[in-house]
Amino acid sequence: MFKLLRYYAVASLIAILATVVLLTWFYRQVAIQGIVQLVERNNLTLARTAMSSMNPALLAFLDATADIQPGRSAHRQLPPELAESIKTLMRGQSIVRIKIYNRLGVVVFSTKPSQIGHDLRDNAGFIAAINGDVRNTLIYRDTFNSFDRATEEDNLMQSYLPVRHSPVDPIRGVFEIYTDVNNLVHQTERTEFIILSGAILILSALYAALILIVRHANEIIEQQQHTILERTETLKSLSAQMLTREETDKQRIAVELHEGLAQTLSAVKLKVEKGRSHKASDEDDESVDSIIPVLQQAIQEVRTIATNLRPSSLDDIGLLPTIKRLCREFEERHPDTHIERQISLKEQDIPPPLKIVIYRIIVSVLADMETQPSIRRIHLALWLEDDNLVLMMDDTASDALDSTAIPLANIDPQLRTGFAGMEELTTLSGGVFTASYHARGGATLRAAWSQLMPFKPKRISDAR
User: Is the pTM of this model over 0.70?
Assistant: First the structure.
């Protein structure tokens, strides 16, 4: 059986986790781009301001170190004016490191002395700057710096700027500054944590709500499946009962025709033949007189068979008078049993196709109750309740007030045989059948049909 709740819980959890990962990646990319754009503008402004103040000394220093080749010693003393300008630039600013490259890509100065003399001519930032462009990149803490091939300790923004006297002059070297962006990165990470925590909480609440909804839907589906299985089993049982009852009815009619009507007609035939063999008038009169009661008996048997097949009173006078006559005949056969009728509707309130069904149900239940001599009271009720037509038959004693409703699937099959006909006819005619057993004996049988939907009987044979 397909486990809807488990499948949905796993699938939705995977989807939510994937959503969180994508949100994290997307926010990180947007945050990095925002930091880069913000620091890039600040670095350019700061670097150009610094270079404008130290430009003469910087150009003189680059001219003095222009001949330093890669692999040779690059340690040269900074001019005092340039050294003072660099100290002033780094004092109280967010700049944490400065590098100066000559045209050959050799680091001729760095505030980190161990980097002086490094050959970085293949550095992408240097290449861009020596060709006249400005290059910026953000380096996170504990990440590899692809430009300098070193591990950085802090979150830094690297900016590479070309150094020249004027925009039309040749480039003398490259000026690189490292700006500390720890505050921005930490603030961004805190914001990222808050946003992602909120997103996780919201998605978790959504996940829980969806799981509850799907769980409720799964319970409804399982309940419907259980109901379908119950009804399927009931219909299988009713189908078997219907076939048995049809064969029983056919056998009963065959016996009545063969043993009753056929024997009566044979007796009439013998009396007619006997009358023809005698010529005396007194004998003829005696033969004719003896035939009349036999014919009357045959007529009565034919009427009985026809009534069992379909009472003509249903079409002539209607269902309600037919029920009244049926109850009166039952009380005549069983003087100790009283039928209380409570019918609070009119003949036109009953759909014509449903009349024969109600009649068959009442006949079936009365026939079952007829086999129980202890019954002294039968309550028969027929009424309209909201949009339902309800039929109830009850053989409970008047003081047996305690009742317990039992699902049909849990009722002992031997107990169900007493109302199998009512259950069968109700179900096949599109109605709903329920039964209740009582603590002190007896049962309440109830059938209800909806009046909102057009009545469509499911091939109920009138020959029953």
Answer: no
